[in-house]
Specification:
The chain is α+β, with helices and mostly antiparallel strands. It contains four helices and eleven strands, in the order ααααβββββββββββ. The strands form three sheets. It has a four-stranded antiparallel β-sheet, with no helix packed on it.
Length: 255
């Protein structure tokens, strides 16, 4: 593609905010009709994203750069890594370990919801619902996930209208995991809200989640520009929980 400040064909991906869109356009266009140009562009992006040169850095990137990068990488079979070498990745798999599609815009997170010592999977989706995949394998074995057939929004969860993006954390410090979810662009709202589902079950029991009725954006959170995809952790090392949210435009917001 053309460099924005030079008529030179540099082969790199130029973008201001939507890195994933730039990569997607590069993947589709394959500038000059060569795979080498695309390979160079993706490698340059991978190396520059966090400076460590690994595909892992792209997979952890905010927004949906990872999806576009993987789409681009499907066009050639070559490992991407530091110093031009790196980890040899096998062929991509769609819905491995017994997973199933949830329609569109899956937003998965891992959590032990049934308290059996292994990680289950809860996924958001474009329809705003939550889908629960129980890990039915023995602890320590390769996971096998089974979708709760015909059940969306288990454990008392409710739809958040569109583009649900769940994350689990003990927000009320009562010893069990609550859920906070983002959502996205819809007819009702241009903004990304945050929805708090309190786990009202006793610690160690099967969770029961209750949406704070009529309350979006609890804890004085501010709506995002378009779309919200939260994760929670002690980012600044001060002993309490902070929140970082991705957005539809690829920005990361820190609370």
């Amino acid at each position: 593609m053309l460099h924005p400040f030079s008529p030179e064909r540099t082969g790199e991906v130029a973008f201001s905010r939507r890195a994933e869109k730039a990569l997607l356009r590069q993947a589709k266009a394959m500038w000059a009709g060569t795979r080498e140009g695309l390979k160079h562009a993706v490698r340059r992006y991978v190396r520059r994203h966090r400076g460590d040169g690994t595909l892992f850095s792209v997979l952890r990137s905010p927004g949906r750069a990872a999806a576009a990068a993987l789409l681009a990488l499907q066009l050639y079979a070559s490992p991407v890594g530091a110093n031009g070498g790196g980890i040899p990745f096998g062929a991509g798999q769609e819905n491995p370990f017994g997973l199933q599609g949830v329609g569109s815009s899956s937003g998965p997170t891992f959590v032990d919801l049934d308290n059996d010592g292994d990680l289950d999977l809860v996924s958001g989706a474009q329809d705003g619902n939550f889908y629960y995949f129980e890990n039915t394998a023995n602890p320590g074995a390769i996971p096998t996930f089974a979708l709760a057939t015909g059940v969306s929004n288990p454990f008392g969860l409710q739809s958040v209208v569109v583009f649900s993006k769940p994350t689990f954390v003990d927000l009320d410090s009562d010893g069990d995991l609550d859920l906070i979810s983002g959502n996205g662009l819809s007819v009702e709202s241009f903004y990304g809200n945050f929805f708090y589902f309190e786990n009202t079950a006793d610690p160690g029991a099967t969770p029961t989640f209750a949406l704070a009725t009529g309350v979006s954006n609890p804890f004085e959170l501010v709506t995002t520009v378009v779309g919200s995809a939260p994760t929670v952790g002690d980012v600044d090392g001060d002993g309490d929980l902070d929140l970082v949210s991705g957005t539809y435009f690829g920005l990361s917001l820190y609370y």
